[in-house]
Amino acid sequence: MCQVKRLLLLIVVLNYYIEIKKYILREDSIVSIFAKASKRVSSYRCSFLFNAKGKNSHYNEKSNTYVAKKIATKKKKKKILNALTSEEKYDIIKDIKKYCECTKKYRRLPTREVTIGNIKIGGTNKIAVQTMTSCDTRNVEECVYQIKKCKDLGADLVRLTVQGVQEVEASYRIKEKLLSENITIPLVADIHFNPKIALMAADIFDKIRVNPGNYVDGRKKWINRIYKTKEEFDKGKLFIKEKFIPLIEKCKRLNRAIRIGTNHGSLSSRMLSYYGDTPLGMVESAFEFADLCIENNFFNIVFSMKASNAYVMIQSYRLLVARQYQREKSNCNVEEKEKGSSLIFPLHLGVTEAGFGDNGRIKSYLGIGSLLYDGIGDTIRISLTEDPWEELIPCKKLIENLKKRIFYSDEEKSHSHMSQSQQQKNDGGNKCFDGDSSRRSIIAKVDSLCEGGKTHVTHAELTTHTAHSTDITHFAHFDENFRNFNNITKREVEKRKNVLHEDCTIGNVVTIKELEDSLQMFKDLNLDLNQNGELKKDVKTTDLIIINNFEMLTDKAKKTVEKLVEAGLHVLVRHKRESVDTIKKVKVYSRSGGILFYTNLENIANDLKEIKDHVDQKLVKGYALILNGREDVETMEKIKILEPPPLFLLLKSNNIYEHVLVTRRVNEILHSLGMNIPYIHYADIDAVTYDDILVNATLYVGTCLIDLMGDGLIINVRNDKAITKNKLKEEISSRVALNSFLTLNILQDTRIRLFKTDYIACPSCGRTLFNIQETTKKIMKLTGHLKGVKIAVMGCIVNGIGEMADAHFGYVGSAPKKIDLYYGKELVERNIPEEEACDRLIELIKKHNKWQDPS
């Protein structure tokens, strides 16, 4: 017996010896094992692209930037830099300006065509819609049911999680059942941690999604490593090569595709140590894997750059495209150059862990929509904490709106004066405003594209059509020097007379009839009425309202206006003689609120003297100028000499589909002229359905705010039927309430003005260890009133710690029906029974002084 024990001990020792020898032979492992962590010595204030979002940095909520903190080293005089300095990171991309084909007219990014099963993506192919099964992959019947339902409802690809051998075996049976029913929709395997499983999955699946952050490194340990030189850092690529090339060779042989899917929340510890938790780190992580594909002449690859923060996600994709442009120029692959093949690979877009309901949709519309607007994106998925087929409708709505953005034109003056609904009716619903037959042919193709048909619009057709039909040439010729995607900054403005909110102003448009119901109006504008009948503002309260036809104010409406002004709101009315007479009848006793005029540039010369007199008489506080964004530079420059100057500008484009373009133009002109006057977005929404309203408001105004353009937002849903036709939430009981709801949630998800709890919630998949839909709803109900608090609800740990790095608290599945609780990245409670976890989460929030009782 003793001899047997000795033999076993000898085998164990030999095994450890072999493993240690392997590490010693790899120099990069020596560094990772024996190097001691050193605190970073940094005193730079830099762009968010380059600063780690960990211990050494903090997030500036107001400016949406990451700012490096000063850290004093406790070491001796000798200082060792852990990773690149912020200046060195900036040197990598400081000269990059181009991140899309065109920021003014629609030009789709010319990506390489990639085959996935029986479909093609990229190039001139339609934008494909994806979703993911939410059940355990071992449940074959449920997976088949979900895949079939998603296909019937318009999905082009479906992804399944494949974490082990049992899931691989189940996938064989799933594929067999689908093929037996002649269902050939491409299937995608979602792989984390396990290269061996990826190789097995390639026998079954049409595309393999690998995560560069954990494909080789496994679970992150959040351990800083020291890299004294770039050469030392690059030695880590040898291990990637060893693990990844077998998958490349197999996919090449079987004609599979690979998605190199980087996640902000799961960058490898090696990348984190060198580049930080940044978009730059995400891009470089993806390129390490892509370079191996290119070196081995495998080009059937797709990129993704997902993050739960829409702002980080957008900048990561932009940087990825910009770097691909750079690499395309320096392409040294002779064979591909001779073919004329592009090395700009297709992009799959998504905001990961977007969450539940309207908030998940708004966050996704912001992230995905902003990129689609600039022609970036070949496939999309909106990751919701809902059933997988629920993700398909918002995806289709985004693509439909892309169609309207592509073909929007106002070249016929008669159309420019029509409402959107009139234009839609007159043009058969296409919203393309000329009668050219060839143009209508292309429109039909785009309709087919949006509805999942097989017809495609070629790049040549798009280019030719857009060049002659979109009449924006007279105001689209401007250079963007101020809006630099790799260093997003906000214009410095002067907010005078305490009219505008310090973060971002919330506005609304109300009618006289709506004002007559004062209690409903107070509720819709988020004013609290206390027991003494006094109105109180909070962070959700509207700051200013526009009242059209003010001269027709009734006695009931007048009393409501007086109460609103007394509570500190500002009322904006058109300057005309009748309005002045009505203002004189309104009793205003507030120092914080007041009445303002608005007028346009055409009338300001005639109106200015009267306005000045009224300001001097303290009848009104001042005035605003309304613009449509098409004014020439000389006209805009005249604003500088107006006395008194306007308190702010109202930017109201002629059509919602051109609002992003005119905003970029106005923002550039104001900066070039050195004008520090703030401007507020004013968006009329004429859509009828709730989904269309949500997309229009978020896509065309949110895209501007995510780039920090603008100082306020007014959304005006003009169709009353939009409320009665849709089963909306209880708090959205009127048109005014809907305006407030949209404005607040867009500002929340752009992180410009926080008013409630922010949630990061994964959409569920086969890895999820509890019922995430029900749990997310429960947590939202308990904690939804905690302004500025971020809570992550994660089904498992795949992206957990990393995505939660942006959250204060984390609720993570650790085992079936067991929950781990985190404070930031720190695990504070382990394996809590699911039935106790919500109460323990609230206790944790209270412990860190983030709790407040609901009002």
TrEMBL record:
GO terms for biological process: isopentenyl diphosphate biosynthetic process, methylerythritol 4-phosphate pathway; terpenoid biosynthetic process. One of its GO terms (molecular function) is iron ion binding. Pathway: Isoprenoid biosynthesis; isopentenyl diphosphate biosynthesis via DXP pathway; isopentenyl diphosphate from 1-deoxy-D-xylulose 5-phosphate: step 5/6. It comes from the Eukaryota. SUPFAM superfamilies: Nitrite and sulphite reductase 4Fe-4S domain-like. The keyword Magnesium does not apply. The keyword Metal-binding applies. It is an enzyme of class 1 (oxidoreductase). PANTHER family: 4-HYDROXY-3-METHYLBUT-2-EN-1-YL DIPHOSPHATE SYNTHASE, 4-HYDROXY-3-METHYLBUT-2-EN-1-YL DIPHOSPHATE SYNTHASE (FERREDOXIN), CHLOROPLASTIC. This is 4-hydroxy-3-methylbut-2-en-1-yl diphosphate synthase (ferredoxin), chloroplastic. It comes from Plasmodium ovale (malaria parasite P. ovale).
